[in-house]
Design brief:
heterodimer; A: OB fold (Dihydrolipoamide Acetyltransferase, E2P); 9 helices; 27% helix; B: 575 residues; mainly alpha; MetI-like fold; 23 helices; globular; ABC_transporter-like_CS (chain A); ABC_SmlMolc_Importer (chain A); transport (chain A)
């Protein structure tokens, strides 16, 4: 097992810069998600890790070995990485068993050893009884599990996932997430997982790299990204909540209830302002008192276990909160904001 | 993996495996040898003796009255033929693609058949249909008096057959466009209360106009380069077009003969290339305009018009396909031309003679099968790495190379044959072996000519493969050659066989190239039919032609069996 280091990676296609100066250090055995909207360069990063694309500048190191730099390139065939594709990429002319066993066959591993390891891999994904089937005879979830078995059969150090759940329906996704978690626990492999779905990344990864337009926005644990996002864009991208304009305050700090109400009161649209993130669970309905603001219910949507309530402040800004009971639209209430997180403005 | 196992390579540009590098070099040499060299050789010969003096070969060609007569005749027959092709092709295209007519696959198959039947056989069968010696007219007692002219020996006869032969080209161009028309365009027009006729005239025809023009351009250049039909119908009547002029000049002698012929060839080649460029430009323009719609093809309900329309199609097919083929069969079964077919005169002696006595028939058959088989096999083997490498090239480079490969197929066979004569008239350097006068020169010409025929289905199958399939094999550690054999080949195999079969089908009947390159002992089937007819032995020629048509229909049916496993459009006569 070795550490995977991306050192100041640049990539451009036909003069257009897709990845700009990316630095990441991925510890052995870590589950890392690359998260970002489409076109943020996350798939390109994965393809450079796999060796399909050379880097334009910078270095990719795996332990002491330089996998890729502007002068050197270890080809994909020599990397011993596994990969799970969005389209599964199962070879339609080979049975499940042959698909899983192909990497071993290429490495010229003897057939009894090969059979044992295929069996083992199929066990992990619970597909033992499907060994003889062709990929066309499997469901989407089963196909993705075959792809998973194929990626782990060579016991690679690093397994790359390229939006593996994008083609599956909602119900299957939750199940496959569970499979991935078990897979990671059992193999202990380093996993780099590309997705555009923040809830998928939050629930699976140890650490998440959020990317935007080829640049790293923030790199941290899901908890850190949720509680202390760097800027307004990220605050809107991850989790639910409202970004409020308030009177000026230094970024990257918690704001307590008293200060927050003060900041809101002092804010007027002519001033220089700051943005703070208020999570829905940090808003409480209170009787009128010292620490309370007047709001109007703008909209109330049933979500099953609770209602989403959209509130409007007196200056027109919107706030999202939850409530157990439905609320009448246009009714007035008092709320207290318990805490907030101050944000950098988006560059 | 331990560090020592990892081989780091220095990259120059995009990552290039050494296996890939060798493949690429091979590819470059191959394309250069098969596509570029013949065309260049022709150009050099035509321009080599260009001087300002009036006696240079090219000037002589341009001064000769025969050149201009042949050029005019070529334009007249090809133009008239194109008109016929457009009428037939559009009629069949609209009816079989847009309506709920029954038995669509059979109509399409029958309509495409004339394209695959070699032109000399088409010409022969029409000759058997008309004229005073026609066995079928004699059988029916309708034959005109002896000595009355054969109506097919005329410019209009040539144009009619050129039209029938190239109508499928117009049909294909139109059909491709019609299939791409989305249903919602039609539904929107119907919601606007347009009648089916209005929808057709206001929506469908304007959207197909450029496809029809492109198909017509293709039909025109194909007619311009056709040798079999004007040779069989024009030479006896003394009606000369450009390809037959070249053929006749080759028979003549003279110091500048080759240079003059090369000059003539350049004229055809330039005309044809200009036509091809026009066609490609039009087709591309017509394709872009409809991108982004959901592709669900249009279908009109014919209701009470269905039966009359089916009868009309059937009678047209009867006239252009069934009747001439029937005449051909009848001719092969009579003892001599001019005799009616009755139970008493019915004889299989022509078939018997062809198989048992005529040594040349057996030889020609063997030669053609051998040439077709080896060409198909070699081209299949070549197409795999070639297609693979082409797919890895950037779009623009790929387009350039693909059109280079297309050139020898696009320029008329007669021009290509001249190029090969120029290339191989002298013994090969160093090894001092002369290919001229052997089967070898025909074989090389076939390779050059049909490379694109074999490559096209392969390329289209490869471009439909998910690139992730190969990347997954790459991650599994498989190197390019192993990926090619284990992954790409099995997944594109049907396209290979289709490409190979198409090459076999076309080359076994080929006349134009072999007409100039054959020599005694190296006859092909095409040459044999042509020579037998020229020497007046139409009965024997018909017998061979019947076998050839059966072979063509059989191979086409075989290809149809592959159709469900092939990408759309690989087999022209199949959905």
């Amino acid at each position: 097992m070795a550490r995977l280091v991306l050192d100041n990676i640049h990539k451009s296609f036909h003069g257009e810069s897709v990845v700009k100066g990316l630095n990441l250090t991925i510890e052995p055995g870590e589950f890392v998600a690359l998260l970002g909207p489409s076109g943020c360069g996350k798939s390109t990063i994965l393809r450079m890790l796999a060796g399909f694309e050379p880097v334009s500048d910078g270095k990719i190191l795996h332990g002491d070995i330089c996998l890729s730099s502007s002068k050197q390139h270890v080809s994909t065939e020599d990397r011993n990485f596994g990969m799970v594709f969005q389209s599964y990429a199962l070879w339609p002319h080979m049975s499940v068993k042959d698909n899983v066993g192909y990497p071993l066959k290429v490495q010229k591993i003897k057939s009894d050893e090969r059979d044992r390891r295929i069996q083992e891999a199929l066990e992990i994904v619970q597909l033992e009884e499907y060994a003889g089937r062709l990929p066309a005879q499997l469901s989407g979830g089963q196909r993705q599990r075959v792809a998973l078995a194929r990626s782990l059969v060579t016991e690679p150090d690093v397994v790359l996932f390229d939006e593996p759940l994008a083609n599956l329906d909602r119900h299957l996704r939750a199940k496959m997430e569970e499979t991935f978690r078990a897979f990671h626990k059992r193999t202990g492999a380093t996993i780099v997982y590309v997705t555009h779905d923040q809830s998928e990344a939050m629930s699976l990864a140890d650490r998440i790299a959020v990317l935007k337009k080829g640049e790293l926005v923030q790199w941290g644990t899901p908890q850190a990204l949720y509680a202390t996002p760097k800027n307004t864009w990220l605050a809107n991208f991850i989790g639910r909540g409202s970004v409020l304009k308030v009177s000026e305050i230094a970024p990257q700090q918690y704001v307590n209830s008293t200060d927050l109400h003060d900041l809101i009161e002092r804010y007027s649209s002519e001033q220089v302002f700051s943005s703070v993130l208020v999570r829905p669970q940090d808003i409480n309905f209170v009787p009128i008192g010292d620490l309370s603001i007047v709001v109007t219910v703008n909209n109330c949507i049933f979500r099953g276990e609770r209602y989403d309530v959209e509130l409007t402040l007196e200056d027109g800004q919107k706030l999202l909160t939850y409530n157990d009971m439905p609320m009448t639209v246009n009714s007035q209430h008092h709320i207290r904001l318990e805490q907030a997180w101050s944000l950098e403005s988006e560059s | 993996m331990t560090p020592s196992l990892i081989k780091a390579r220095f990259v120059d540009g995009p990552s290039m495996d050494s296996q890939l590098r060798w493949l690429s070099i091979g590819l470059f040499v191959l394309i250069a040898a098969l596509s570029v060299v013949p065309s260049l050789r022709l150009l050099v010969e035509a321009l080599s003796q260009v001087t300002l003096s009036a006696s240079s070969p090219l000037a002589e060609v341009l001064r000769s009255e025969r050149t201009w007569i042949a050029l005019g005749n070529s334009f007249y027959t090809s133009g008239l033929g194109t008109l016929i092709a457009v009428l037939l092709g559009c009629g069949f295209g609209f009816v079989t693609t847009l309506t709920n007519i029954r038995g669509r696959a059979i109509w399409v198959f029958c309509f495409m058949l004339p394209m695959m039947i070699p032109p000399q056989v088409t010409a022969l069968s029409w000759l058997q249909l008309f004229g005073p010696a026609s066995p079928i007219l004699n059988t029916l007692g309708l034959a005109p008096a002896l000595g009355s002219p054969q109506p097919m020996y005329s410019a209009e006869g040539i144009a009619l057959l050129l039209g029938i032969q190239s109508a499928p080209l117009v049909y294909l161009a139109l059909r491709t466009q019609l299939i791409a028309l989305p249903q919602d365009l039609l539904e929107a027009a119907q919601l606007a209360k347009a009648s089916p006729f209005r929808v057709w005239i206001d929506i469908i025809v304007p959207l197909c106009r450029s496809a029809i023009v492109a198909g017509a351009a293709l039909a025109f250049v194909s007619s311009l380069g056709n040798f079999g039909i004007p040779a069989m119908l024009g030479i006896p009547a003394g009606y000369i077009v450009l390809p037959t002029l070249i053929y006749q000049q080759m028979a003549g002698f003279g110091n500048d003969m080759l240079s003059q012929v090369a000059g003539l060839s350049m004229i055809i080649a330039l005309l044809v290339l200009a036509g091809m460029l026009l066609q490609q430009w039009l087709q591309q323009r017509s394709r872009y305009s409809l991108l982004g719609h959901t592709a669900q093809s249009i279908s009109f309900r014919l209701q009470r018009w269905r039966l009359p329309l089916e009868l009309l199609l059937a009678s047209i097919l009867c006239f252009i396909l069934v009747a001439p083929l029937f005449a051909l069969i009848v001719s092969s079964l009579v003892p001599a031309l001019g005799m009616p077919l009755t139970l008493d005169t019915l004889t299989f002696s022509a078939f018997y003679e062809m198989i048992s006595r005529q040594g040349v028939t057996k030889r020609a058959f063997e030669n053609s099968v051998f040439l077709a088989f080896v060409s198909a096999f070699v081209l299949m083997v070549v197409s795999l790495p070639l297609g693979y490498l082409l797919m890895r090239l950037p779009m623009r480079t790929r387009a350039v190379i693909a059109s280079l490969i297309e050139v020898p197929y696009a320029i008329p066979g007669i021009v290509l044959a001249i190029a090969f004569i120029l290339l191989f008239a002298k013994p090969l350097p160093f090894i001092e072996v002369s290919l001229y006068g052997t089967l070898g020169i025909i074989f090389l010409a076939y390779l050059s000519c049909f490379l694109s025929v074999c490559l096209k289905p392969v390329l289209s199958a490869m471009s439909q493969l998910d690139p992730a399939l190969e990347e997954a094999a790459q991650l599994a550690g498989a190197r390019p050659l192993k990926r090619l054999v284990d992954i790409i080949l099995p997944l594109t195999a049907p396209a290979f066989f289709a490409g190979g079969l198409l090459v076999f089908l076309i080359s076994i009947n080929e006349l134009t190239v072999s007409a100039l390159l054959w020599s005694a002992g190296n006859e092909t089937l095409g040459v044999l039919i042509f020579n037998l007819d020229e020497s007046g032995d139409s009965v024997l020629a018909s017998a061979i032609a019947v076998l050839v048509v059966m072979l063509v229909a059989g191979l086409m049916s075989l290809l149809s069996l592959f159709a469900p496993r092939l990408p759309k459009g690989v087999i022209p006569w199949h959905d």
